[in-house]
Amino acid sequence: MILVDDAGGAYERIDHSPWNGCTLADFVMPFFLFIVGVAIALALKRIPNLSAAIRKIVIRTLKLLFWGLLLQGGYSHAPDDLSYGVDMKHIRWCGILQRIALVYFLVALIEALTAKRQSVTLSSSKFSIFYAYHWQWIGGFIAFLIYIITTYALYIPDWSFVVHNSDSPYDGKRLTVKCGMRGHLGPACNAVGYVDRQVWGVNHLYSQPVWIRHKDCTKDSPRMGPLRDDAPTWCLAPFEPEGLLSSISAILSGTIGVHYGHILIHFQGHRSRLKHWVLMGLALLIVAIILHFTDAIPLNKQLYSFSYVCFTAGAAGIVFSAFYILIDVWGLRTPFLFLEWIGMNAMLVFVMAAQGIFPAFINGWYYETPDKSLVHWIQRHVFIDVWHSERLGTLLYVIFAEIVFWGVVAGIFHRLRIYWKL
Protein backbone atom coordinates (compact mmCIF):
# COMPACT_ATOMS: atom_id res chain seq x y z
CA MET A 1 0.00 0.00 0.00
CA ILE A 2 2.85 2.38 0.82
CA LEU A 3 4.49 1.59 -2.52
CA VAL A 4 1.45 2.16 -4.71
CA ASP A 5 0.11 5.16 -2.77
CA ASP A 6 3.35 7.12 -2.58
CA ALA A 7 4.99 6.01 -5.84
CA GLY A 8 1.80 5.69 -7.89
CA GLY A 9 1.91 9.37 -8.79
CA ALA A 10 5.29 8.82 -10.44
CA TYR A 11 4.44 5.48 -12.05
CA GLU A 12 0.78 5.60 -13.06
CA ARG A 13 0.82 1.98 -14.21
CA ILE A 14 1.09 0.80 -10.60
CA ASP A 15 -1.54 3.29 -9.40
CA HIS A 16 -5.23 2.35 -9.31
CA SER A 17 -6.83 1.70 -12.68
CA PRO A 18 -8.97 4.70 -13.75
CA TRP A 19 -11.89 2.30 -14.21
CA ASN A 20 -11.87 -1.22 -15.70
CA GLY A 21 -8.71 -3.28 -15.35
CA CYS A 22 -6.44 -4.30 -12.51
CA THR A 23 -3.10 -2.75 -11.57
CA LEU A 24 -0.72 -3.42 -8.68
CA ALA A 25 -2.59 -0.94 -6.46
CA ASP A 26 -5.87 -2.74 -7.08
CA PHE A 27 -4.57 -5.88 -5.33
CA VAL A 28 -4.00 -4.14 -1.99
CA MET A 29 -7.53 -4.03 -0.55
CA PRO A 30 -8.58 -7.59 -1.48
CA PHE A 31 -5.24 -8.92 -0.19
CA PHE A 32 -5.99 -7.14 3.11
CA LEU A 33 -9.40 -8.79 3.30
CA PHE A 34 -8.10 -12.20 2.23
CA ILE A 35 -5.50 -12.33 5.02
CA VAL A 36 -8.04 -10.98 7.52
CA GLY A 37 -10.18 -13.99 6.61
CA VAL A 38 -7.26 -16.40 7.11
CA ALA A 39 -6.54 -14.81 10.50
CA ILE A 40 -10.19 -15.10 11.55
CA ALA A 41 -10.17 -18.86 10.90
CA LEU A 42 -7.01 -19.32 12.96
CA ALA A 43 -8.05 -17.01 15.79
CA LEU A 44 -11.53 -18.49 16.20
CA LYS A 45 -10.77 -22.19 15.70
CA ARG A 46 -11.44 -22.68 19.43
CA ILE A 47 -13.99 -20.54 21.27
CA PRO A 48 -14.33 -21.44 24.95
CA ASN A 49 -16.67 -18.52 25.63
CA LEU A 50 -18.98 -17.40 22.81
CA SER A 51 -20.21 -14.21 24.49
CA ALA A 52 -16.62 -13.10 25.19
CA ALA A 53 -15.66 -13.81 21.57
CA ILE A 54 -18.60 -11.78 20.23
CA ARG A 55 -17.75 -8.94 22.59
CA LYS A 56 -14.15 -8.87 21.28
CA ILE A 57 -15.41 -8.90 17.69
CA VAL A 58 -17.71 -5.95 18.34
CA ILE A 59 -15.04 -3.95 20.20
CA ARG A 60 -12.44 -4.55 17.48
CA THR A 61 -14.96 -3.52 14.82
CA LEU A 62 -15.68 -0.27 16.66
CA LYS A 63 -11.95 0.44 17.00
CA LEU A 64 -11.46 -0.05 13.26
CA LEU A 65 -14.37 2.27 12.52
CA PHE A 66 -13.00 4.93 14.88
CA TRP A 67 -9.53 4.92 13.34
CA GLY A 68 -10.99 4.83 9.86
CA LEU A 69 -13.07 7.93 10.46
CA LEU A 70 -10.19 9.75 12.12
CA LEU A 71 -7.66 8.95 9.39
CA GLN A 72 -9.79 9.10 6.24
CA GLY A 73 -12.84 11.04 7.34
CA GLY A 74 -11.04 14.29 6.61
CA TYR A 75 -9.77 15.35 10.05
CA SER A 76 -6.15 14.54 9.22
CA HIS A 77 -4.64 16.23 6.17
CA ALA A 78 -1.28 14.46 6.40
CA PRO A 79 1.40 14.46 5.26
CA ASP A 80 1.79 17.69 3.23
CA ASP A 81 -1.04 19.86 4.54
CA LEU A 82 -0.21 20.80 8.13
CA SER A 83 -3.77 21.88 8.94
CA TYR A 84 -6.33 19.66 10.64
CA GLY A 85 -10.06 19.49 11.29
CA VAL A 86 -13.06 18.41 9.24
CA ASP A 87 -16.29 20.08 8.20
CA MET A 88 -18.95 17.62 9.37
CA LYS A 89 -21.03 18.59 6.36
CA HIS A 90 -18.38 16.97 4.16
CA ILE A 91 -16.90 14.27 6.40
CA ARG A 92 -16.14 11.04 4.53
CA TRP A 93 -17.89 8.17 6.30
CA CYS A 94 -16.26 5.34 4.34
CA GLY A 95 -12.65 4.27 3.91
CA ILE A 96 -10.17 1.41 4.06
CA LEU A 97 -10.49 0.56 7.75
CA GLN A 98 -14.27 0.96 7.62
CA ARG A 99 -14.47 -1.63 4.84
CA ILE A 100 -12.18 -3.98 6.76
CA ALA A 101 -14.36 -3.43 9.83
CA LEU A 102 -17.56 -4.42 8.00
CA VAL A 103 -16.02 -7.51 6.40
CA TYR A 104 -14.31 -8.53 9.63
CA PHE A 105 -17.48 -8.10 11.70
CA LEU A 106 -19.74 -10.19 9.46
CA VAL A 107 -17.23 -12.93 8.61
CA ALA A 108 -15.94 -13.24 12.18
CA LEU A 109 -19.48 -13.25 13.59
CA ILE A 110 -20.52 -16.14 11.35
CA GLU A 111 -17.32 -17.99 12.24
CA ALA A 112 -17.87 -17.49 15.98
CA LEU A 113 -21.55 -18.47 15.94
CA THR A 114 -20.92 -21.67 13.97
CA ALA A 115 -17.52 -22.74 15.39
CA LYS A 116 -18.92 -25.24 17.89
CA ARG A 117 -20.94 -26.96 15.15
CA GLN A 118 -17.88 -27.87 13.09
CA SER A 119 -16.54 -31.40 13.19
CA VAL A 120 -12.93 -31.73 14.31
CA THR A 121 -12.30 -34.36 11.63
CA LEU A 122 -13.55 -34.21 8.05
CA SER A 123 -14.93 -37.05 5.98
CA SER A 124 -13.02 -38.43 2.99
CA SER A 125 -15.24 -36.52 0.53
CA LYS A 126 -13.47 -33.94 -1.64
CA PHE A 127 -16.10 -31.38 -0.70
CA SER A 128 -16.27 -32.14 3.03
CA ILE A 129 -14.47 -28.88 3.89
CA PHE A 130 -17.21 -26.96 2.11
CA TYR A 131 -19.96 -28.95 3.83
CA ALA A 132 -18.37 -28.46 7.25
CA TYR A 133 -18.32 -24.69 6.84
CA HIS A 134 -21.43 -24.27 4.74
CA TRP A 135 -22.70 -21.32 6.81
CA GLN A 136 -19.68 -19.26 5.85
CA TRP A 137 -20.34 -19.97 2.16
CA ILE A 138 -24.04 -19.25 2.59
CA GLY A 139 -23.11 -15.87 4.07
CA GLY A 140 -20.81 -15.17 1.12
CA PHE A 141 -23.48 -16.26 -1.35
CA ILE A 142 -26.06 -13.97 0.24
CA ALA A 143 -23.60 -11.06 -0.08
CA PHE A 144 -23.07 -12.01 -3.74
CA LEU A 145 -26.83 -12.09 -4.40
CA ILE A 146 -27.41 -8.72 -2.74
CA TYR A 147 -24.62 -7.17 -4.80
CA ILE A 148 -25.59 -8.70 -8.15
CA ILE A 149 -29.34 -8.07 -7.83
CA THR A 150 -28.82 -4.47 -6.71
CA THR A 151 -26.20 -3.78 -9.39
CA TYR A 152 -28.35 -4.94 -12.29
CA ALA A 153 -31.90 -4.24 -11.07
CA LEU A 154 -31.65 -0.82 -9.42
CA TYR A 155 -32.84 2.09 -11.54
CA ILE A 156 -30.36 4.99 -11.59
CA PRO A 157 -31.99 8.41 -12.14
CA ASP A 158 -30.24 11.64 -13.13
CA TRP A 159 -28.26 13.20 -10.29
CA SER A 160 -26.37 16.38 -9.54
CA PHE A 161 -23.52 17.59 -7.35
CA VAL A 162 -21.75 20.79 -6.39
CA VAL A 163 -18.05 21.05 -7.25
CA HIS A 164 -15.91 21.76 -4.17
CA ASN A 165 -12.47 22.42 -5.64
CA SER A 166 -10.87 25.84 -5.43
CA ASP A 167 -8.50 24.95 -8.29
CA SER A 168 -11.36 24.15 -10.67
CA PRO A 169 -13.11 26.75 -12.84
CA TYR A 170 -16.34 24.95 -11.89
CA ASP A 171 -15.84 25.51 -8.14
CA GLY A 172 -19.19 26.17 -6.47
CA LYS A 173 -21.21 25.23 -9.54
CA ARG A 174 -23.86 22.52 -9.59
CA LEU A 175 -23.43 19.99 -12.40
CA THR A 176 -25.90 17.33 -13.54
CA VAL A 177 -25.14 13.76 -14.64
CA LYS A 178 -27.67 12.23 -17.05
CA CYS A 179 -28.52 8.59 -16.32
CA GLY A 180 -32.02 7.03 -16.40
CA MET A 181 -30.89 3.41 -16.79
CA ARG A 182 -30.30 0.06 -15.05
CA GLY A 183 -27.39 -2.33 -14.90
CA HIS A 184 -24.81 0.17 -16.14
CA LEU A 185 -21.19 -0.58 -15.14
CA GLY A 186 -19.65 2.69 -16.30
CA PRO A 187 -18.40 5.50 -14.03
CA ALA A 188 -21.44 7.77 -14.14
CA CYS A 189 -24.58 5.69 -13.66
CA ASN A 190 -23.75 2.56 -11.66
CA ALA A 191 -25.68 1.23 -8.68
CA VAL A 192 -22.63 1.34 -6.39
CA GLY A 193 -22.41 5.11 -6.62
CA TYR A 194 -26.20 5.54 -6.43
CA VAL A 195 -26.47 3.55 -3.18
CA ASP A 196 -23.74 5.64 -1.57
CA ARG A 197 -25.33 8.91 -2.67
CA GLN A 198 -28.63 7.81 -1.15
CA VAL A 199 -27.21 6.37 2.08
CA TRP A 200 -24.35 8.77 2.89
CA GLY A 201 -25.18 11.81 0.77
CA VAL A 202 -23.17 13.11 -2.17
CA ASN A 203 -21.20 15.51 0.05
CA HIS A 204 -19.81 12.64 2.13
CA LEU A 205 -18.21 10.69 -0.71
CA TYR A 206 -14.54 10.66 -1.76
CA SER A 207 -13.95 13.90 -3.66
CA GLN A 208 -10.91 12.77 -5.70
CA PRO A 209 -11.85 9.46 -7.36
CA VAL A 210 -9.33 7.86 -9.72
CA TRP A 211 -11.68 8.20 -12.69
CA ILE A 212 -10.30 11.72 -13.16
CA ARG A 213 -7.53 9.85 -15.07
CA HIS A 214 -10.10 8.07 -17.29
CA LYS A 215 -9.63 8.40 -21.06
CA ASP A 216 -12.96 10.24 -21.29
CA CYS A 217 -11.68 12.84 -18.83
CA THR A 218 -8.08 13.49 -19.88
CA LYS A 219 -5.98 12.94 -22.99
CA ASP A 220 -3.07 11.89 -20.74
CA SER A 221 -4.87 8.80 -19.40
CA PRO A 222 -3.86 6.80 -17.40
CA ARG A 223 -1.71 9.70 -16.18
CA MET A 224 -3.14 12.73 -14.47
CA GLY A 225 -3.62 15.61 -16.88
CA PRO A 226 -5.84 18.59 -17.68
CA LEU A 227 -9.48 17.84 -18.37
CA ARG A 228 -10.54 17.41 -21.98
CA ASP A 229 -12.68 20.19 -23.42
CA ASP A 230 -15.45 17.65 -24.00
CA ALA A 231 -15.03 15.89 -20.64
CA PRO A 232 -18.37 14.69 -19.22
CA THR A 233 -19.62 16.24 -16.00
CA TRP A 234 -19.06 13.06 -13.95
CA CYS A 235 -15.29 13.55 -14.27
CA LEU A 236 -15.57 16.15 -11.49
CA ALA A 237 -18.09 14.20 -9.42
CA PRO A 238 -17.36 12.48 -6.09
CA PHE A 239 -17.39 8.68 -5.86
CA GLU A 240 -16.79 6.39 -2.89
CA PRO A 241 -14.35 3.54 -3.73
CA GLU A 242 -15.00 1.91 -0.33
CA GLY A 243 -18.77 2.36 -0.37
CA LEU A 244 -21.59 0.28 1.07
CA LEU A 245 -22.63 -1.92 -1.86
CA SER A 246 -19.04 -2.58 -2.97
CA SER A 247 -18.18 -3.49 0.65
CA ILE A 248 -20.96 -6.07 0.61
CA SER A 249 -19.27 -7.60 -2.42
CA ALA A 250 -15.95 -7.43 -0.55
CA ILE A 251 -17.33 -9.87 2.04
CA LEU A 252 -16.55 -12.58 -0.54
CA SER A 253 -12.83 -11.75 -0.31
CA GLY A 254 -12.94 -12.36 3.43
CA THR A 255 -15.00 -15.52 2.99
CA ILE A 256 -12.44 -17.01 0.58
CA GLY A 257 -9.66 -16.08 3.01
CA VAL A 258 -11.49 -17.88 5.82
CA HIS A 259 -11.67 -20.96 3.61
CA TYR A 260 -7.90 -20.92 3.10
CA GLY A 261 -7.54 -20.69 6.88
CA HIS A 262 -9.82 -23.71 7.32
CA ILE A 263 -7.62 -25.69 4.93
CA LEU A 264 -4.60 -24.77 7.06
CA ILE A 265 -6.38 -26.05 10.17
CA HIS A 266 -7.84 -29.31 8.86
CA PHE A 267 -5.35 -30.47 6.20
CA GLN A 268 -2.10 -31.65 7.77
CA GLY A 269 0.24 -32.37 4.83
CA HIS A 270 1.93 -29.70 2.73
CA ARG A 271 0.89 -31.42 -0.47
CA SER A 272 -2.81 -31.62 0.40
CA ARG A 273 -2.91 -27.98 1.54
CA LEU A 274 -1.11 -26.67 -1.52
CA LYS A 275 -3.17 -28.79 -3.89
CA HIS A 276 -6.40 -27.32 -2.57
CA TRP A 277 -5.08 -23.74 -2.37
CA VAL A 278 -3.51 -23.67 -5.83
CA LEU A 279 -6.41 -25.39 -7.58
CA MET A 280 -8.90 -22.99 -6.03
CA GLY A 281 -6.71 -20.00 -6.84
CA LEU A 282 -6.35 -21.04 -10.47
CA ALA A 283 -10.09 -21.72 -10.77
CA LEU A 284 -10.90 -18.25 -9.46
CA LEU A 285 -8.42 -16.67 -11.87
CA ILE A 286 -9.90 -18.53 -14.85
CA VAL A 287 -13.46 -17.51 -13.93
CA ALA A 288 -12.37 -13.86 -13.59
CA ILE A 289 -10.48 -13.83 -16.89
CA ILE A 290 -13.46 -15.33 -18.76
CA LEU A 291 -15.88 -12.81 -17.23
CA HIS A 292 -13.58 -9.88 -18.00
CA PHE A 293 -12.57 -10.67 -21.57
CA THR A 294 -16.09 -11.62 -22.60
CA ASP A 295 -17.23 -8.23 -21.24
CA ALA A 296 -19.79 -10.03 -19.09
CA ILE A 297 -18.45 -8.52 -15.85
CA PRO A 298 -15.25 -6.46 -16.28
CA LEU A 299 -12.55 -6.34 -13.59
CA ASN A 300 -13.27 -3.18 -11.62
CA LYS A 301 -11.89 -2.25 -8.22
CA GLN A 302 -14.11 0.82 -7.81
CA LEU A 303 -17.27 -1.31 -8.22
CA TYR A 304 -15.65 -4.34 -6.55
CA SER A 305 -17.14 -6.45 -9.33
CA PHE A 306 -17.53 -10.23 -9.03
CA SER A 307 -14.77 -10.83 -11.60
CA TYR A 308 -12.52 -8.52 -9.56
CA VAL A 309 -13.29 -10.54 -6.41
CA CYS A 310 -12.40 -13.79 -8.19
CA PHE A 311 -9.26 -12.42 -9.84
CA THR A 312 -7.77 -10.82 -6.73
CA ALA A 313 -8.79 -13.68 -4.41
CA GLY A 314 -7.27 -16.17 -6.83
CA ALA A 315 -4.08 -14.10 -6.98
CA ALA A 316 -4.02 -13.85 -3.17
CA GLY A 317 -4.39 -17.62 -2.93
CA ILE A 318 -1.47 -18.18 -5.33
CA VAL A 319 0.75 -15.66 -3.53
CA PHE A 320 -0.21 -17.17 -0.16
CA SER A 321 0.73 -20.61 -1.48
CA ALA A 322 4.06 -19.29 -2.80
CA PHE A 323 4.99 -17.82 0.58
CA TYR A 324 3.90 -21.06 2.24
CA ILE A 325 6.29 -23.01 0.00
CA LEU A 326 9.18 -20.60 0.58
CA ILE A 327 8.79 -20.27 4.35
CA ASP A 328 6.99 -23.37 5.68
CA VAL A 329 8.15 -25.98 3.17
CA TRP A 330 11.64 -24.78 2.21
CA GLY A 331 12.34 -23.01 5.53
CA LEU A 332 13.45 -19.69 4.01
CA ARG A 333 12.16 -17.59 6.87
CA THR A 334 15.06 -15.20 7.44
CA PRO A 335 14.76 -13.25 4.12
CA PHE A 336 11.13 -12.51 4.94
CA LEU A 337 11.47 -11.55 8.61
CA PHE A 338 10.87 -7.87 7.80
CA LEU A 339 7.42 -8.82 6.44
CA GLU A 340 6.72 -10.71 9.65
CA TRP A 341 7.75 -7.71 11.74
CA ILE A 342 5.56 -5.35 9.71
CA GLY A 343 2.67 -7.82 9.95
CA MET A 344 2.99 -7.91 13.74
CA ASN A 345 2.69 -4.13 13.86
CA ALA A 346 0.50 -3.62 10.80
CA MET A 347 -1.65 -0.97 12.46
CA LEU A 348 1.37 1.07 13.49
CA VAL A 349 2.80 1.03 9.95
CA PHE A 350 -0.59 1.75 8.39
CA VAL A 351 -1.24 4.81 10.56
CA MET A 352 2.27 6.23 10.69
CA ALA A 353 3.44 5.43 7.16
CA ALA A 354 0.52 4.63 4.83
CA GLN A 355 -1.60 7.44 6.26
CA GLY A 356 1.34 9.84 6.51
CA ILE A 357 1.09 10.73 10.21
CA PHE A 358 4.82 10.36 10.89
CA PRO A 359 5.93 12.40 7.82
CA ALA A 360 3.37 15.04 8.78
CA PHE A 361 4.94 15.29 12.24
CA ILE A 362 8.42 15.68 10.71
CA ASN A 363 7.10 18.20 8.16
CA GLY A 364 5.76 20.22 11.08
CA TRP A 365 9.34 21.24 11.86
CA TYR A 366 10.37 23.35 8.89
CA TYR A 367 12.62 26.32 8.08
CA GLU A 368 10.96 29.47 6.68
CA THR A 369 8.40 27.63 4.50
CA PRO A 370 6.64 24.24 4.89
CA ASP A 371 8.42 22.81 1.84
CA LYS A 372 11.77 23.22 3.63
CA SER A 373 11.47 20.28 5.99
CA LEU A 374 13.61 17.20 6.62
CA VAL A 375 11.28 14.92 4.63
CA HIS A 376 11.32 17.19 1.59
CA TRP A 377 15.10 17.68 1.88
CA ILE A 378 15.80 13.93 2.00
CA GLN A 379 13.47 13.22 -0.89
CA ARG A 380 14.97 15.97 -3.05
CA HIS A 381 18.70 15.83 -2.23
CA VAL A 382 19.27 12.18 -1.27
CA PHE A 383 17.13 10.58 -3.97
CA ILE A 384 15.76 12.79 -6.77
CA ASP A 385 18.84 14.98 -7.37
CA VAL A 386 21.25 12.05 -7.06
CA TRP A 387 19.46 10.05 -9.75
CA HIS A 388 18.50 13.11 -11.81
CA SER A 389 14.98 11.71 -12.15
CA GLU A 390 11.80 12.72 -10.37
CA ARG A 391 10.18 9.34 -11.07
CA LEU A 392 13.09 7.09 -10.12
CA GLY A 393 14.03 9.24 -7.15
CA THR A 394 10.46 9.08 -5.83
CA LEU A 395 10.36 5.31 -6.24
CA LEU A 396 13.68 4.82 -4.43
CA TYR A 397 12.60 7.20 -1.67
CA VAL A 398 9.43 5.16 -1.10
CA ILE A 399 11.36 1.87 -1.06
CA PHE A 400 14.24 2.89 1.20
CA ALA A 401 13.05 5.88 3.24
CA GLU A 402 9.59 4.47 3.86
CA ILE A 403 9.25 0.70 3.40
CA VAL A 404 12.75 -0.33 4.56
CA PHE A 405 12.66 2.30 7.30
CA TRP A 406 9.39 1.03 8.73
CA GLY A 407 10.55 -2.57 8.36
CA VAL A 408 13.50 -1.72 10.62
CA VAL A 409 11.28 0.20 13.06
CA ALA A 410 8.84 -2.72 13.22
CA GLY A 411 11.78 -5.08 13.85
CA ILE A 412 13.01 -2.94 16.74
CA PHE A 413 9.52 -2.81 18.20
CA HIS A 414 9.29 -6.61 17.86
CA ARG A 415 12.53 -7.05 19.82
CA LEU A 416 11.10 -4.73 22.49
CA ARG A 417 7.79 -6.65 22.45
CA ILE A 418 5.87 -3.47 21.60
CA TYR A 419 2.78 -4.04 19.45
CA TRP A 420 -0.19 -1.87 18.49
CA LYS A 421 -3.14 -4.20 18.65
CA LEU A 422 -6.84 -3.48 18.14
UniProtKB/TrEMBL annotation:
Keywords: Membrane, Transmembrane, Transmembrane helix
Superkingdom, natural source: Eukaryota
Regions that span the bilayer: 27-45, 57-76, 96-114, 135-156, 244-265, 277-294, 306-326, 338-362, 395-413
Protein name, UniProt field: Heparan-alpha-glucosaminide N-acetyltransferase
Source organism of this protein record: Acorus gramineus
